[in-house]
């Protein structure tokens, strides 16, 4: 019996989501041993937040461009922008997780009131949206990649794609706010 990914999009979405989130939580909670990861120089580790802020900014542009292209009916340009957005997200995540495994999370250096009423709520919403986005992004990506373009229109890709793009955008914007609070303002 032949396995066809297009017939198992929901199952593949679930598997990829569980694996991805397990990796993220494993890194953040310290379950991935630091010794298992090669150590980069301090310069590389210190550059990661700045590189990730740039990646997040470019991802915001590619997501907005992808939305704009699909609204204009430019499906191939939309597809390129959204695949680029996913590649940027994956790169961001690999760099972030590497830094977290090697150095741990970055403590907030600002005043307690800003931490409590600005930083923490912003970070919490960013993290929540990022977690919620994972299965939705995988789902729309798999719907698009497992079918010819002409068949994608008959799926739930557009409906879930709008949701994924919206949540993804907000998450990236809030991620940049977190970056500015940690590395620019304080």
TrEMBL record:
InterPro entries: DUF420 (IPR007352)
Top-level taxonomic group: Archaea
Keyword Glycosyltransferase attributed: no
TM region(s), chain numbering: 12-32, 52-70, 82-98, 118-142, 163-185
Keywords, comma-separated and alphabetical: Membrane, Transmembrane, Transmembrane helix
Pfam families: DUF420
Keyword Hydrolase attributed: no
The protein, known as: DUF420 domain-containing protein
Organism listed in the record: Haloferax marinisediminis
């Amino acid at each position: 019996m032949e396995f066809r990914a297009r017939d198992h999009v929901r199952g593949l979405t679930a598997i990829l989501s569980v694996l991805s989130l397990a990796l993220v939580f494993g890194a953040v909670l310290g379950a991935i041993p630091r010794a298992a990861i090669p150590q980069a120089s301090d310069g590389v580790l210190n550059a990661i937040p700045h590189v990730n802020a740039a990646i997040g900014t470019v991802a915001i542009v590619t997501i907005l461009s992808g939305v704009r292209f699909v609204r204009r009916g430019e499906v191939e340009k939309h597809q390129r922008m959204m695949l680029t957005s996913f590649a940027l997200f994956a790169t961001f995540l690999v760099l972030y997780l590497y830094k977290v495994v090697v150095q741990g999370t970055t403590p907030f250096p600002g005043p307690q009131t800003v931490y409590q009423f600005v930083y923490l709520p912003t970070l919490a919403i960013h993290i929540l949206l990022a977690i919620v986005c994972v299965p939705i992004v995988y789902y729309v990506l798999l719907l698009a990649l497992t079918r010819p373009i002409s068949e994608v229109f008959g799926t739930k890709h557009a409906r879930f794609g709008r949701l994924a793009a919206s949540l993804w955008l907000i998450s990236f914007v809030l991620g940049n706010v977190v970056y500015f609070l940690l590395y620019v303002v304080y």
